[in-house]
Input
Amino acid sequence: MYPYLTIFGHTVTTYGILIIAGFAAGAVFCLVHRKVNEVSLVDLVACLFIGAAGALVGGKLFYMIQGFPQFLELARETGYTFLDYFNDAGLVYYGGFIGAVLFVLMTAKLVGAPVWSVLDTILPSIPLMHAFGRVGCFTAGCCYGIPSDWGFYFDASPIAPHGVRLLPVQLIESACLLVLFFLMYHYGKQKRLPGKMLAFYLIGYGVIRFILEFFRYDAFRGIYGVFSVSQWVSLALIVLGLFFWFWRRAAKKETVAG
Output
């Protein structure tokens, strides 16, 4: 694969380029889509950029939590500091998602924007951004799949095993995310009850991630019991999504009955 690109004489990571491209594509979608939920341009831009900062912080923190025992050992042996660890840390998607949502909620509250309207505007763009990110994972050789006869060699990657074909689970997830994006886009063409779009995403991505984790091969993600950390998180988010879906349905029935 191609973990690095040379642009105007400067070497950059392909992963980083695709992350930026994904954010740009998602931001454009949000700006076009904002009229459905009547969100102001200024409020939306503020929420998008601060949400991106939250995704970065949350993604790194989740990564650091998973590797904290290794950090402590390295700190004792070499004097490796917490700041060094933060700078060197990779990104964990679920941490990034949680961080982004928290920062968006905080920003919406601060600027006085309607929280659910902001979330419903941004949520469909998340699988679109994520799809770009997973292609970035493929180019970098991270988040790789199980050995497979019809897989790819990632010998240029400093992360993936060399000399073995690995299932391109990153590209499979990217395709699933694009399907989820189009489904959410179609569902969100009209204003929905608060919580519905969030439920749609939590259930949809939770199912995708839970299944695809069985085909992942990278050890750093952590295994607890019969499932990986991401699978346990996926199950929790699916349950939370079902709560939001039926909570809004129950609330609507109560309103009609009242």
Notes: The chain has ten helices and five strands. The longest strand covers residues 147-152.
